[in-house]
Amino acid sequence: MNTAAQKGLALMDFQIDKTVSRFQVQAFATGLLSSFGHNPRIAIRDYEAEIQCVPDTFEKAYLKLTVQMSRMEVVDEMKKSDQAKLEQEMYEKVLDVSHYPTAVYESKEIIVQKVADGRLNAGVNGELSFHGMTQPLTLQANVNVLGTLLRIGGDFTLRQSDYGIKPVSFAAGALRLKDELKFTFDLVARKQD
Questions:
Q1: pLDDT in tens, 66-91
Q2: I need a surface site. Which of 8, 12, 106, 112 has the fewest CB within 10 A?
Q3: Cα separation of 50 and 5, whole Å?
């Protein structure tokens, strides 16, 4: 439970509207054949977010995001058979979703700065529990306040090796994915009654 709630402060709750939000990860190819390979983009389809803050000031902000790892989809244009093969490799060998079905990011501190009317910058210090390991993860987000909506955008990177994941290789190692992944998010959160 958020410390603000424990102190009895009235908090606003927001829920992500997945129908208009976008959350993706970009992998990057390397190796001898990388110029012939592509950099897979993967859409994160199933996630829940708990967002809370004190009304108007956005102080005591809190975020908890839970991603269902088996609901990611390669969104690059490719043959369906190649897409299915890549997704199977991702689920079974990279993410090992049967053992690690969720990833959870929880904020420990969010520092909100007003940039202009209705525009905020948020620095989020938190922890990501992913693939059986928990590591600190800091990210920056731009927040636009649109009445009862928040539009939250930004990006962050992480290294697979920090979570015990060995990057995937193909064609006897001549084509492999880099350790670093780039995540981008453009989320719309609606105030809950």
A1: 999 999 888 876 677 777 777 888 88
A2: 8
A3: 13
User: 141 CB contacts (<8 Å, ≥6 apart)?
Assistant: 121, 122, 124, 152, 153, 154, 185
| Exposure class string for 133-150: b at 16+ Cβ within 10 A, else e | eeeebebebebeeeeeeb
Q: According to the model, what pLDDT value does residue 173 have? A: 56
Q: What is the pTM of this model?
A: 0.85
Amino acid code (one letter) for 73: E
Domains assigned to the chain: 3-191 (2.40.128.110)
Give φ, ψ of 122 to 5 degrees.
Answer: -125, 125
Terminal CA-CA length for the chain:
19
Reported as a single tens digit per residue, the pLDDT across 89-113 is 888 888 899 999 999 999 999 999 9
Please state, in angstroms and rounded to a whole number, the distance separating the CA atoms of residues 128 and 137: 6
Q: CA torsion sign, 106 to 109 to 113 to 117? A: positive
Q: Reduce the secondary structure of 80-103 to three states and give it as a string.
A: HHHHHHHHHHHHHHHCCCCCCCEE
* Helix H or strand E segment including 44: strand 41-44
